[in-house]
Design goal:
It is built from 32 helices and 27 strands. By secondary structure, the chain is of the alpha/beta class. It folds into three domains: 112-401, Dihydropteroate synthase-like (TIM Barrel, Alpha-Beta Barrel), CATH 3.20.20; 504-748, Phosphoenolpyruvate-binding domains (TIM Barrel, Alpha-Beta Barrel); 756-846, Sulfite Reductase Hemoprotein, domain 1 (2-Layer Sandwich). The protein is globular, with a radius of gyration of 29 Å.
Length: 855
């Protein structure tokens, strides 16, 4: 017996010896094992692209930037830099300006065509819609049911999680059942941690999604490593090569595709140590894997750059495209150059862990929509904490709106004066405003594209059509020097007379009839009425309202206006003689609120003297100028000499589909002229359905705010039927309430003005260890009133710690029906029974002084 024990001990020792020898032979492992962590010595204030979002940095909520903190080293005089300095990171991309084909007219990014099963993506192919099964992959019947339902409802690809051998075996049976029913929709395997499983999955699946952050490194340990030189850092690529090339060779042989899917929340510890938790780190992580594909002449690859923060996600994709442009120029692959093949690979877009309901949709519309607007994106998925087929409708709505953005034109003056609904009716619903037959042919193709048909619009057709039909040439010729995607900054403005909110102003448009119901109006504008009948503002309260036809104010409406002004709101009315007479009848006793005029540039010369007199008489506080964004530079420059100057500008484009373009133009002109006057977005929404309203408001105004353009937002849903036709939430009981709801949630998800709890919630998949839909709803109900608090609800740990790095608290599945609780990245409670976890989460929030009782 003793001899047997000795033999076993000898085998164990030999095994450890072999493993240690392997590490010693790899120099990069020596560094990772024996190097001691050193605190970073940094005193730079830099762009968010380059600063780690960990211990050494903090997030500036107001400016949406990451700012490096000063850290004093406790070491001796000798200082060792852990990773690149912020200046060195900036040197990598400081000269990059181009991140899309065109920021003014629609030009789709010319990506390489990639085959996935029986479909093609990229190039001139339609934008494909994806979703993911939410059940355990071992449940074959449920997976088949979900895949079939998603296909019937318009999905082009479906992804399944494949974490082990049992899931691989189940996938064989799933594929067999689908093929037996002649269902050939491409299937995608979602792989984390396990290269061996990826190789097995390639026998079954049409595309393999690998995560560069954990494909080789496994679970992150959040351990800083020291890299004294770039050469030392690059030695880590040898291990990637060893693990990844077998998958490349197999996919090449079987004609599979690979998605190199980087996640902000799961960058490898090696990348984190060198580049930080940044978009730059995400891009470089993806390129390490892509370079191996290119070196081995495998080009059937797709990129993704997902993050739960829409702002980080957008900048990561932009940087990825910009770097691909750079690499395309320096392409040294002779064979591909001779073919004329592009090395700009297709992009799959998504905001990961977007969450539940309207908030998940708004966050996704912001992230995905902003990129689609600039022609970036070949496939999309909106990751919701809902059933997988629920993700398909918002995806289709985004693509439909892309169609309207592509073909929007106002070249016929008669159309420019029509409402959107009139234009839609007159043009058969296409919203393309000329009668050219060839143009209508292309429109039909785009309709087919949006509805999942097989017809495609070629790049040549798009280019030719857009060049002659979109009449924006007279105001689209401007250079963007101020809006630099790799260093997003906000214009410095002067907010005078305490009219505008310090973060971002919330506005609304109300009618006289709506004002007559004062209690409903107070509720819709988020004013609290206390027991003494006094109105109180909070962070959700509207700051200013526009009242059209003010001269027709009734006695009931007048009393409501007086109460609103007394509570500190500002009322904006058109300057005309009748309005002045009505203002004189309104009793205003507030120092914080007041009445303002608005007028346009055409009338300001005639109106200015009267306005000045009224300001001097303290009848009104001042005035605003309304613009449509098409004014020439000389006209805009005249604003500088107006006395008194306007308190702010109202930017109201002629059509919602051109609002992003005119905003970029106005923002550039104001900066070039050195004008520090703030401007507020004013968006009329004429859509009828709730989904269309949500997309229009978020896509065309949110895209501007995510780039920090603008100082306020007014959304005006003009169709009353939009409320009665849709089963909306209880708090959205009127048109005014809907305006407030949209404005607040867009500002929340752009992180410009926080008013409630922010949630990061994964959409569920086969890895999820509890019922995430029900749990997310429960947590939202308990904690939804905690302004500025971020809570992550994660089904498992795949992206957990990393995505939660942006959250204060984390609720993570650790085992079936067991929950781990985190404070930031720190695990504070382990394996809590699911039935106790919500109460323990609230206790944790209270412990860190983030709790407040609901009002």
């Amino acid at each position: 017996m003793c001899q047997v024990k000795r033999l076993l001990l000898l085998i164990v020792v030999l095994n450890y010896y072999i493993e240690i020898k392997k590490y010693i032979l790899r120099e990069d492992s020596i560094v990772s094992i024996f190097a001691k962590a050193s605190k970073r010595v940094s005193s730079y204030r830099c762009s968010f692209l380059f600063n780690a979002k960990g211990k050494n940095s903090h997030y500036n909520e107001k400016s949406n930037t990451y700012v490096a903190k000063k850290i004093a080293t406790k070491k001796k005089k000798k200082k060792i830099l852990n990773a690149l300095t912020s200046e060195e990171k900036y040197d990598i991309i400081k000269d990059i300006k181009k991140y899309c084909e065109c920021t003014k007219k629609y030009r789709r990014l010319p990506t390489r065509e990639v085959t996935i099963g029986n479909i093609k993506i990229g190039g001139t192919n339609k934008i494909a819609v994806q979703t993911m099964t939410s059940c355990d992959t071992r449940n074959v019947e449920e997976c088949v049911y979900q895949i079939k339902k998603c296909k019937d409802l318009g999905a082009d690809l479906v992804r399944l999680t494949v974490q082990g051998v049992q899931e691989v075996e189940a996938s064989y049976r799933i594929k067999e059942k689908l093929l037996s029913e002649n269902i050939t929709i491409p299937l995608v395997a979602d792989i984390h941690f396990n290269p061996k499983i990826a190789l097995m999955a390639a026998d079954i699946f049409d595309k393999i999604r690998v995560n560069p952050g954990n494909y080789v490194d496994g679970r992150k340990k959040w351990i800083n490593r020291i890299y004294k030189t770039k050469e030392e850092f690059d030695k880590g690529k040898l291990f990637i090569k060893e693990k990844f090339i077998p998958l490349i060779e197999k996919c090449k042989r079987l004609n599979r595709a690979i998605r190199i899917g980087t996640n902000h929340g799961s960058l490898s510890s090696r990348m984190l140590s060198y580049y930080g938790d940044t978009p730059l780190g995400m891009v470089e992580s993806a390129f390490e894997f892509a370079d191996l594909c290119i070196e081995n002449n495998f080009f059937n690859i797709v990129f993704s750059m997902k993050a739960s923060n829409a702002y980080v996600m957008i900048q990561s994709y932009r940087l990825l495209v910009a770097r691909q442009y750079q690499r395309e120029k320096s392409n040294c692959n002779v064979e591909e150059k001779e073919k004329g093949s592009s090395l700009i690979f297709p992009l799959h877009l998504g905001v990961t862990e977007a969450g539940f309901g309207d908030n998940g949709r708004i966050k996704s519309y912001l992230g995905i929509g902003s990129l689609l607007y600039d022609g970036i994106g070949d496939t999309i998925r909106i990751s919701l904490t809902e059933d997988p087929w629920e993700e398909l409708i918002p995806c289709k709505k985004l693509i439909e709106n892309l169609k309207k953005r592509i073909f929007y034109s106002d070249e016929e003056k008669s159309h420019s004066h029509m409402s959107q609904s009139q234009q839609q009716k007159n043009d058969g619903g296409n919203k393309c405003f000329d009668g050219d037959s060839s143009r209508r042919s292309i429109i039909a193709k785009v309709d087919s594209l949006c509805e999942g048909g097989k017809t495609h619009v070629t790049h040549a057709e798009l280019t030719t059509h857009t060049a002659h039909s979109t009449d924006i040439t007279h105001f689209a010729h401007f250079d963007e020097n101020f809006r630099n995607f790799n260093n997003i900054t906000k214009r410095e403005v002067e907010k005078r007379k305490n009219v505008l909110h310090e973060d971002c102003t919330i506005g609304n448009v109300v009618t006289i009839k709506e004002l007559e119901d004062s209690l409903q109006m107070f509720k819709d504008l988020n004013l609290d009425l206390n027991q003494n009948g006094e109105l109180k503002k909070d962070v959700k309260t509207t700051d200013l309202i526009i009242i059209n036809n003010f001269e027709m104010l009734t006695d009931k409406a007048k009393k409501t206006v007086e109460k609103l002004v007394e509570a500190g709101l500002h009322v904006l009315v058109r300057h005309k003689r009748e309005s002045v007479d009505t203002i004189k009848k309104v009793k205003v006793y507030s120092r914080s609120g007041g009445i303002l005029f608005y007028t346009n540039l055409e009338n300001i010369a005639n109106d200015l003297k009267e306005i000045k007199d009224h300001v001097d008489q303290k009848l009104v506080k001042g005035y605003a100028l309304i613009l449509n964004g098409r004014e020439d530079v000389e006209t805009m420059e005249k604003i500088k000499i107006l006395e008194p100057p306007p308190l702010f500008l109202l930017l109201k484009s002629n059509n919602i589909y051109e609002h992003v373009l005119v905003t970029r133009r106005v923002n550039e002109i104001l900066h070039s002229l050195g004008m520090n006057i703030p401007y507020i977005h004013y968006a009329d929404i004429d859509a009828v359905t709730y989904d269309d309203i949500l997309v229009n408001a978020t896509l065309y105004v949110g895209t501007c705010l995510i780039d920090l353009m603008g100082d306020g937002l007014i959304i005006n849903v003009r169709n009353d039927k939009a409320i009665t036709k849709n089963k909306l939430k209880e708090e959205i009981s009127s048109r005014v309430a809907l305006n407030s709801f949209l404005t607040l949630n867009i500002l929340q998800d752009t992180r410009i003005r926080l008013f409630k709890t922010d949630y990061i919630a994964c959409p569920s998949c086969g890895r999820t260890l509890f019922n995430i839909q029900e749990t997310t709803k429960k947590i939202m109900k308990l904690t939804g009133h905690l302004k500025g608090v971020k809570i992550a609800v994660m089904g498992c740990i795949v992206n957990g710690i990393g995505e939660m790095a942006d959250a204060h608290f984390g609720y993570v599945g650790s085992a079936p029906k067991k929950i781990d609780l985190y404070y930031g990245k720190e695990l504070v409670e382990r394996n809590i029974p699911e039935e106790e976890a919500c109460d323990r989460l609230i206790e944790l929030i209270k412990k860190h002084n983030k709790w407040q009782d609901p009002s």
